[in-house]
Amino acid sequence: MRVLLDGTPLLGNRAGIGRYTEQLLPEMASRPEIDVRATAFSHGASKVLRSQLPAGVASRVSPIPARVLDPAWRFLRQPPVEWLARKADIFHATNFLLPPLRRIAAVVTVHDLAFLTHPATVNPQARDLSALVPLTLARADAGVPTPTSSGGGSSRISASRRTGSSSPRSRSTTPGRRPTLPTRRSGPGSGCQSPT
């Protein structure tokens, strides 16, 4: 199974999401049934991303700068991830939001719900998450709540329920347990939707 993972959190100063991504990559790479590759949506970051990856993990960085991609994804719903990165069966969005997809199954990690529970404590860029995360979860095939997003480690609280998402395709997985992985999408309207 080919998994394309968003490695953008590995760039720059590494905080919690960067450390999570750093730990997730070697674990995925160690599994023989998974061919994991990392991508970053930041033009010119290929050397930095490659230097942060474990042995055996390939990378592909978007040829389009993030300052162009963000509004294109938000307003035009283009280009899909498949146009920017290598072929994959699953795309893992490691940082709350899911870019447009065509046929790749989608997994999204929700690290915390501070944007809902303590909005005054989040930075201005994260304030949009209260509107964008429910839309992302509605498009995702699986959501991965980390312990802080699932109520301090409570294993069954769904981040999608906490944020108001109600997609029949979306399901929450439990940290530390091997989920049933989603499969490739097909049919009209599958993927290529914007988080806004």
Specify the biggest β-sheet. 6 strands, parallel
Could you say which overall geometry the principal axes of the C-alpha atoms support? Answer: globular
Radius of gyration: 16 Å
Count all strands and give the number.
6
Fill in the CATH topology.
Rossmann fold
Q: What CATH architecture do you see?
A: 3-Layer(aba) Sandwich
- End-to-end separation in angstroms reads 29 Å
The fraction of residues in strands falls at: 5-15%
Q: Number of folding domains?
A: 1
Spatial strand order of the main sheet: 3-2-1-4-5-6
Order of helices and strands: EHEHEHHEEHHEH
Low-pLDDT segments: 149-179, 187-196
Q: Quick recap of the structure?
A:
29% of the residues lie in helices and 15% in strands. It has 7 helices and 6 strands; from the N terminus they run βαβαβααββααβα. α2 (46-52) links the parallel β2 and β3 (58-61).
